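[job 0412] stage=complex_fold ligand=nicotinamide-adenine-dinucleotide status=START
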Amino acid sequence: MKIAVLAGDGIGPEITEQAARVLEALAADGLSLELRAAPVGGTAYDATGEPLPSKTVALCEQADAILFGAIGGPRYDKLERSKRPEQALLRLRKHFDLFANLRPAVVYPELANASTLKPEVVAGLDLLILRELTSDIYFGQPRGIHTRDNGEREGFDTMRYTEGEIRRIAHVGFATARKRSKRLCSIDKSNVLETTQLWRDVVAEVGRGYPDVELTHMLVDNAAMQLVRNPKQFDVMLCGNMFGDILSDEASMLTGSIGMLPSASLNADGFGLYEPIHGSAPDIAGRDQANPLATILSAAMMLRYSLNQDAAATRVEQAVRTVLAQGYRTADIAEPGARTVGTREMGDAVIAALRD
Ligand code: NAD
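[job 0412] stage=complex_fold status=DONE, emitting structure tokens
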């Protein structure tokens, strides 16, 4: 199994190094994994003048999955838009048609106090937001700002989903729910938006092929409220692009720690790009302070969703639980006054826990 490792900028190289070491430890135990690195983002722009060089795309095409660090930084903010680091991620999503974005929000018992919500509301939370990533109002045409005959400006966008687009994300939703606790909650606004009435109808149709998965529907405004009232009622939440964008950020804050949250973006063939949800954290880059656990957990998702190595994925996730239980904390998840470890020492601890 070939993995393209795109470390990127800022803390990207430090955190992906730890995830790569964890994968190498699994390879040493007999898992057939081959890791190959390629530049991306600002680092790639510095080296080649392009944020996503064609050689990097070629390496990804030959791989079974992409492990991605983070990109961006103040040095690149004044570049013309097409040369900015962020373009690399947008182009990779488009090139590989990565339409399914999986964002788990897990609250580990030891970190329940890190949330701004009461510990009893979030302790033990383990939900997954599945967001459609390539359609909806963000891409629908026509859109624009124009001036009406009376001289007043008017802005407009088009919310649009085809049946096929809904069908394919719904299949991912049901298949994902099957790998978890077999409950899927589909989010829409079918009481006022036609597009999302179609969403509800098509999701229900697809659901007939998955009788073992319990399907419920919820209006997005209620879902936003329920996420802070009683988030543990959810397992997999299936959302269109815009609702998923908003609800996944809300859900990530339930956990209170950006350095802990992994993500996956998949296409129809199961090929995927795996990355932490945080950015390149230029404020702490190069100081061995970044939390590598979101990237390590992204590697675990890669094992599960693209490489079909469920047992290895569970082993990595269990190792992360073990190090947290043992009291290892990077600065971002430490209680005030607690002893903290650096990026590399956290990686060491996870590798040691893997071997236990
Ligand atoms: P950020 O996520 O990089 O950082 C926000 C805050 O969280 C910072 O204080 C940072 O130190 C902290 N943080 C983030 N990850 C951490 C980790 N693993 N361990 C400990 N602390 C961590 O967001 P930002 O500061 O708004 O953006 C910085 C750069 O990252 C920008 O150039 C932005 O465009 C880019 N960005 C990239 C991605 C991506 O690569 N997918 C995502 C978001 C932002």
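The two ends are 25 Å apart (CA to CA).
[job 0412] exit 0
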